[in-house]
Amino acid sequence: KKSVLHVDRYMKVGEVDERIYGSFIEHLGRAVYEGIYQPDSPLSDENGFRRDVMGLVRELGVPVVRYPGGNFVSGYHWEDGTGPKELRPQRIEPAWNVIETNQFGLNEFMDWTSLAGTAPMMAVNLGTRGPEDAKNILEYCNLKGGSYYSDLRIAHGYQKPHDIKLWCLGNEMDGPWQMGHKTAYEYGRIAAETGRVMKMIDPDVELVACGSSSLYMDTFGDWEDTVLSECYDQADYISLHQYYDNCADDTPGFLANTVAMDQFISSVISICDAVKAKKRKKKSIHLSFDEWNVWYHSKEQDKKLEPWCKAPHQLEDIYNFEDALLVAGMLITMLRHADRVRIACLAQLVNVIAPIMTSDTGAWKQTIYYPFALISKYGRGTVLHTVADTPVYECRYGDAPYLDSVCVLNENEASETAELTIFAVNKDLKESMELSCDLRQFEGYQVKEHIVLTHPDLKAANTQSAPDLVKPSAGGNAKIEGGILSAILCDKSFHVIRLA
Ligand code: AHR
Known about the structure:
By secondary structure, the chain is α/β, with parallel strands linked by helices. It has 11 helices and 23 strands.
């Protein structure tokens, strides 16, 4: 097969907002306890933070981490996780049917984010709570002192405000599984009033309103329309959530989900802009794709869990090579919409549907770690319009291209250097693909590196005893001759072609 990429250095989609490489830590399973926090472990530091996990998080490159949920946040009392640990209550946690010990909370999370080199994206509870508690937590986090909650933070040992600027107005409020589930109108109103109070306290906060929990919700479309009609002035972003599975063991169909994701993003942009037009607004609403991943491997196992235990092995998907290909394709799809998708969170970060896994004796990288880390590292700068002439195959959404691709130009004015990176997935399971691209606009550019992630076995997975089964290598064959880039992309593979 052959594909031709057309790229023009002046045809820009938009700047990559680094927060597109965000992730997510929920009080769920072993994400917090035994994941990022394990005070009795020799692998942890004096705060109880797992050092090995911290190292892998830093290497992954996640500029923002959403917290504390997820479904969890819709019943959460944030105060329970503050103050002296011995006084913190143990509570039932109905979202995931477990006991929450509250030994890790808001202040520990803030300590962890600064050590992990990331920033918080905090969610407020709009399920069992509302504007009053959003007001209180914001006062606790962002005010200097001299008021009840800001003084309480100081009394808890945090003199300086946390100054958290990015907040989610609840989580998946369209979902009937959500504590405090609401109709679109009910949610739109509470989001508007919560947002109004929050911006009175700190006008610089950015707020994410809940969109649909998936493209396949019956309320999709009407939900976004009604919610934004109610809270357009207060919201800065609308969320999208989507998980894909390969339960049918149909890999071409599974990899074609990038088409569905692209349709989801385009549809939400259209609705945001329709509401903008109806309201004759200047401001545009941007997209926060704050839960995305593959999720299905652990679902049968999770049905067997006993209720009301602590930090069980829950949602512990073991990812394989084909999952890594889809994760690469999903990130490429979001980058192609960099003008509107400003925030995205790989759900989640550690142990729970995660790129990083832990045991009591170590931490390791799942297959999906690699495409994420590579794209986060090299996908900075400006996304260029990338048109691919590529063969297609039929899938349930219509035609799926065999090639998912995007080009990102990173120009550094200070050092007067520039780098063009092509990210590409060849979804063909049997045939390699000849890729070419006219780069004569990029005079003098040569191939700096061509990284490849491939494996003969689609189901190959990394484990603690074999952590390197699936990992990238620098073995690509891209070359430039007369300004024309050419490369052979082997069957079922992800590529990072770096040019400078
Ligand atoms: O990420 C796991 C769960 O998926 C989250 O708690 C919820 O928001 C979504 O349904």
